[in-house]
Amino acid sequence: MSIRVMLGDDHRIFIEALAGILSDEPDIVVVSCVGSATEIFAEIGRVRPDVLILDVGLPDENGIEVMQRLRREHAGARVLALSGYADRTFVEEMLKAGASGYVVKTASTQELINGVRAVAEGKHFLCAEATARMLNRFLPRADSCPPVSLLSQREREVLVLLANGKRAAEMAAEMGITVSTVEVHRRHLKDKLGLRTSADLTRYAIREGLVAP
What we know:
Elements lengths: L2 E6 L3 H12 L4 E7 L2 H11 L3 E5 L7 H11 L5 E5 L4 H10 L3 E4 L4 H12 L4 E2 L1 H8 L17 H11 L4 H8 L3 H15 L4 H10 L6
Parallel strand pairs: 1-2, 1-3, 3-4, 4-5, 5-6
Helix pairs in contact: 7-9, 7-10, 8-9
């Protein structure tokens, strides 16, 4: 069965483009496109979507207010929040209010599609950027670490591959260099950044946005 999606966003060009993208998926059908909270509550009972994609910045009510009303008036509604902001506070507040997922507008369309499917199945979903912002509160601060700009291009490549779980031999093969050269770059990374372990380097890469968590 198709996933019935309702779109709530006041930017018409954006919402029409998004509706077209989602409608191209064989298991998704867009049943309604609205541009305000007033329209959402006028339509949602009629179209009964499996997932409401909700812009948190609607002109008449913000996302938190909409979620609070939905919990009172349509308790079973499943909501995937859509926002131009990846700030941890926005993510936390929407999840606390009852949203099942959060996707920023800079995310890929595939992440949004994955989010729709996950929420339709009763799961929770965060796009990679939102996940990274949420994780930052649990990771040690890197205020004392030098910026990424200090690293050479090769060092940055090694850092990204290492953070993605690649072994030295795999990194060497992918970069076209020897394993010993990989190890030299890894030592330089630790020395430049003042970090001691591969786990420290991975956390640094996540904090700096070089890789998704």
